[in-house]
């Protein structure tokens, strides 16, 4: 497991940060940061009001709460169970494996070694 982990999104008007920190082997703690940089005092008051009335529910409870049912029961020592909606991660993995520099280098060296062995056996 690679923790702590930070996820940050810049939405032009505010920056949303979600950070995961391990507590022990089985539990982790989520920290949410909502950051704005208003240039006037009234904008600061507006941002605080908007956060408590709308953004806190939208980002922290509604958006992040949707994943909770799936993530809480996730086990990383078992095979993945992918669905039809997981097409993007599958295609991204396929793209990396087929065209990634390290994978291409590894294929080139393994085919060069195979041709060398083949040329030695035919002579």
From TrEMBL:
Domain of life: Bacteria
Protein name as catalogued: Vanillate O-demethylase oxygenase-like C-terminal catalytic domain-containing protein
């Amino acid at each position: 497991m690679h923790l702590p982990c930070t996820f940050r999104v810049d939405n032009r008007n505010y920056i949303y940060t979600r950070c995961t920190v391990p507590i022990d082997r089985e539990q982790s703690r989520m920290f949410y940061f909502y950051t704005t940089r208003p240039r006037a005092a009234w904008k600061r008051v507006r941002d605080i009001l908007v956060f408590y009335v709308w953004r806190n529910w939208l980002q922290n409870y509604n958006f992040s709460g949707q994943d909770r049912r799936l993530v809480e029961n996730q086990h990383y020592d078992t095979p993945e169970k992918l669905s039809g909606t997981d097409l993007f991660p599958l295609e991204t993995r396929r793209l990396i494996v087929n065209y990634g520099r390290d994978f291409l280098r590894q294929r080139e060296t393994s085919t060069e070694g195979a041709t060398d062995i083949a040329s030695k056996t035919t002579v």
